[in-house]
Design goal:
With 390 residues, the chain is an alpha/beta fold. It folds into 2 domains: 101 residues, Transcription Elongation Factor S-II, Chain A, CATH 1.20.930; 268 residues, Uncharacterised protein PF01937, DUF89, domain 3 (Rossmann fold), CATH 3.40.50.10880. It has 16 helices and 7 strands. It has a 7-stranded mixed beta sheet, sandwiched between helices. Helix 10 links the parallel strand 2 and strand 3. Helix 10 crosses helix 12 and helix 11 crosses helix 12. The two termini are 22 Å apart. It binds 1-O-phosphono-beta-D-fructofuranose. The site of 1-O-phosphono-beta-D-fructofuranose has 16 residues, from helix 1, helix 8 and helix 14.
Length: 390
């Protein structure tokens, strides 16, 4: 297939497709939750409902005249404004939907709601769940195991932590698929060969969700720094709330406080990471492109240079995967290395499968998955992958 163009772009136009269900089933539930999450006034409630109705039945409207990023979105949206939401590229439309939620609740303009994350109540609730507590307690036992066993377990924790995505769980709870988990591609050996213990690696971790997933990522980062699998870690977070539970700096701080308030091994992780930030061994970046409705192949030069400096870039989660390989219906056997060749430096994807995009499988694996699960394995979050290109 010719580079980058031939596979169909995923849109929401097909009735019954996963992407259409995100707009027609998941988003109404999300807006319902947002109405209840914070004591919004009538204007905010109205704006949320108007957005929902526009996104299902209407055409894409531009951002408000006064929006600080109106010019940027006018460029990104020039091919899409005025067309039905459900016909626009899924990646573009979903990303813009989240930007419009922020407009509806008044997140950016000066005023009483400036900077109030509409998703924060959902994210905070997750940090207090018994499941989160159990996962942190399990770190005590893990700490008694040999370092390489800990490393492998923490990598798996970070990978499967991606299933704890709040947007995804709105529609997955009813599917009953949760027990059927498996790893459909496992390049973890290659990943560890790029991050040997006692080495000098610079790791760039492009984070995904806050809460449980970020806690698992932080436990992994702590181990990598402690055992010198990495000399320095750059953690890329979102500059503002996005895709329900995507991690911002505020979410990182919440997670660090949560770790510090915990008992045992978890508290130690919090303390070491706090120190590592103070010493510059763990740094945080919030590049505006992290919330762009575009694939990483369109990234600006400064971000490209950031990835080029890293010994390894690890991209967490489903959305990052869509942006990394392109949100298209690729033949599943398309090589991962081909789809990521544009990215300077080695890259790893750690992802549970929650959308239709998939590359890098061998024919036998794809056939077996299809025979056992139909198309559900692509979107149900029951399967995961670790794919690495050196
Ligand atoms: O990036 P994440 O958190 O792993 O997943 C984001 C996600 O829930 O959002 C999209 C649908 O809303 C899907 O691509 C994906 O399942």
């Amino acid at each position: 297939m010719p580079e980058g163009t031939a596979a169909p772009v995923i849109t929401c136009s097909e009735p019954g497709s996963f992407s259409r269900g995100v707009f027609t089933e998941r988003h109404p539930q999300l807006i319902e939750q947002l109405h209840k999450a914070l004591p919004y006034g009538p204007e905010q409630h109205r704006a949320l409902d108007t957005l929902l109705s526009e996104s299902i039945h209407g055409v894409i409207q531009p951002l408000a005249e006064a929006a600080h990023d109106r010019d940027q979105w006018d460029i990104w949206g020039q091919d899409h404004y005025g067309t039905p939401w459900l016909e626009a590229p899924f990646l573009w439309a979903e990303s813009y939907f989240y930007r419009r939620i922020l407009q509806a609740v008044g997140y950016f303009p000066q005023g009483p709601w400036q900077g109030i994350d509409p998703f924060r109540p959902l994210k905070s609730a997750e940090l207090g769940t018994p499941e989160t507590g159990e996962e942190l307690s399990a770190l005590d036992l893990l700490a008694t195991r040999p370092a390489d066993e800990q490393a492998r377990a923490l990598l798996q924790g970070s990978l499967w932590g991606n299933r704890a995505d709040l947007g995804f769980r709105m529609t997955s709870a009813a599917t009953g698929d949760a027990g059927d988990s498996s790893l459909i591609a496992d390049d973890s050996g290659l990943l560890w060969s790029l991050l040997p213990a006692g080495g000098d690696a610079d790791l760039c971790l492009v984070a995904d969700n806050a809460g449980r997933e970020l806690l698992a990522d932080l436990a992994l980062v702590d181990h990598l720094l402690r055992h010198r699998h990495a000399r320095r870690v750059v953690l890329q977070l979102k500059p503002y709330p996005y895709y329900v539970s995507d991690a911002t700096t505020a979410d990182l701080i919440d997670c660090l406080h949560h770790l510090l308030r915990s008992q045992g091994a978890a508290a130690g992780i919090g303390e070491r990471l706090w120190t590592a930030m103070g010493e510059g061994r763990l740094t945080v970046r919030t590049h505006p492109f992290s919330c762009a409705p575009l694939p990483y192949s369109d990234m600006p030069d400064d971000l490209r240079q950031e990835f080029a400096r890293a010994t390894l870039t690890v991209m967490k989660g489903d959305l990052n995967y869509r942006r990394l390989v392109g949100d298209r219906m690729w033949p599943p056997t398309t090589p991962f290395a081909d789809r990521t060749a544009y990215l300077p430096g080695p890259v790893a994807a750690l992802r549970t499968l929650k959308s239709d995009v998939i590359v890098g499988l061998d024919q036998h694996t794809e056939t077996a998955l299809h025979t056992a699960h139909g198309q559900r394995w692509r979107t149900s979050g029951t399967h995961a992958l670790i794919q690495v290109r050196r």
